[in-house]
Design goal:
Rossmann fold; single chain; 7-stranded mixed beta sheet; 5-stranded mixed beta sheet; 424 residues; 13 helices
């Protein structure tokens, strides 16, 4: 088979899906991926779109749109989160599913990539409405997910309670307890210790590795975009190991203090006021300005496509650790590379969540649960190995971390597809 030539005609990306495909196209050309394999990996294995009627608290009926995309199951069951957000689209879910395929491959766990989402605004919904929506969505997916098929997890605006409702609904549909159908569950229903902090903790492990590789010692300044679960816990963990948190943001604003502040106190303030923006011991700045403050480490932990060609030249950080999925546009990557900024790509930097989800799945299958110290130690072992492999390949190939991570991941998935055989 001939090599792929799609990257030669790559056009400017306009959506997360085009962005994800463009990243694959670039790497496919670099590793001389066979054209047939490339074409397969450019497309999801399965897409499910379902329309979800929900009786609202006021008695009205509202129909929501939900998606589940299974990009690849060549290396194992599909794995990936479910997000509830007004901006959810099928293209976004496709991209996130593809990124999950590479994420699982780069850290070497036996999963493929999946992702799901419902177009809704849970912040304007009651718990009762969210439960009904969750159970209806799960019921529509009951024949497409499962411990050996596709294993959802929390993502944007979803949490352990929503995972418990999904597990319960699936179990009722199948007629037996199925604790392995989702991860990120409460401890009481088969969840893993350390799962809630795993995405942030994995990001911190990768960031500490990057500091060591670059020879950056002592106290460093950290800025975090997005103060949800991944962002605020990353800030807390970086603060605990002696670094200074100088800026954080959420959807309602951002704060900056060059002398630093206690991220736990900021989180407590957010819990009381629903935003970090009015925290008293810091200057209020624009929510996007957090990307441009004076700092050594920038952790984008919000949504996709935040770092663009327009703001990349203004970024002052030496390291960008992508706790979010797809936060950096391809044109911004090129600018950051010229500025000698080390970008730890999302498929590596935020893989801690799926690694501990894998641990949760393993523990559930064995009905034997580990102490949190064991979970964290094994997470560190996997993250360190993945970081070192990627960094070494980056140096060998004289490229950037994202390209190196994709080269590792795509080759692993392509080999699995080829060994299993392309045709049924």
């Amino acid at each position: 088979m001939g090599t792929s030539t799609r990257a030669k005609t790559k056009k400017k990306t306009t959506s997360p899906w085009e962005m994800a495909r463009g990243q694959l196209d670039t790497v496919a050309q670099r590793i001389n991926l066979e054209a047939d394999l490339h074409e397969m990996l450019r497309n999801p294995q399965r897409e499910i779109t379902t329309y979800l009627p929900v009786k609202m608290d006021d008695g009205s009926l509202k129909v929501f749109t939900g998606h589940r995309v299974q990009h690849s199951m060549a290396r194992g069951p599909a794995k990936g989160g479910i997000r509830y957000h007004p901006g959810v689209t099928l293209d976004e879910v496709r991209a996130l599913a593809m990124w999950m395929t590479w994420k699982c491959a780069v850290v070497g766990i036996p999963y493929g990539g999946g992702k799901g989402g419902i177009t809704c605004n849970p912040k304007e919904m009651s718990q009762n409405e969210i439960e009904h929506l969750t159970r209806r969505f799960t019921w529509e997916l009951v024949n497409f997910i499962g411990p050996d098929r596709d294993i959802p997890a929390p993502d944007v605006n979803t949490n352990p309670q929503i995972m418990a409702w999904m597990m319960d609904t699936y179990s009722m549909g199948k007629g037996y307890p199925a604790f392995g159908v989702v991860t990120g569950k409460p401890i009481e229903t088969g969840g893993s210790l350390g799962r809630n902090e795993a995405t942030a903790r994995g990001c911190v492990f990768a960031t500490v590795n990057a500091l060591d590789k670059l020879g950056i010692n002592g106290n460093v300044k950290v800025a975090v975009q997005g103060y949800g679960n991944a962002g605020w816990i990353a800030a807390k963990l970086m603060h605990e190991i002696g670094h200074t948190i100088v800026a954080v943001s959420d959807t309602k604003g951002a704060i900056y203090n060059p002398k630093g502040f206690d991220p736990v106190k900021v989180y407590q303030h957010k819990q009381k006021t629903s935003t970090v923006a009015d925290y008293p011991d810091a200057e209020k700045i624009g929510d996007m300005e957090v990307l441009e403050v004076e700092c050594d480490i920038l952790i984008p932990a919000a949504l996709e496509q935040q770092i663009t060609a327009e703001n990349a030249p203004k970024i002052k950080a030496r390291i960008v650790a992508e706790a979010a999925n797809g936060p950096t546009m391809p044109e911004a990557d090129k600018i950051l590379a010229k500025k000698d900024v080390l970008v730890i790509p999302d498929i590596l930097a935020n893989a801690g969540g799926v690694v501990v989800s894998y641990f949760e799945w393993v523990q559930g299958c064995q009905a034997y649960f580990w102490e949190e110290s064991i979970v964290n130690d094994r997470l560190k072992e996997i993250m360190d190995k993945a970081f070192n492999n990627t960094f070494e390949l980056m140096k060998k190939e004289q490229t950037d971390m994202r390209t190196a991570a994709y080269m590792l991941a795509v080759e692993r998935v392509a080999k699995a597809v080829k060994i299993r055989g392309i045709y049924p």
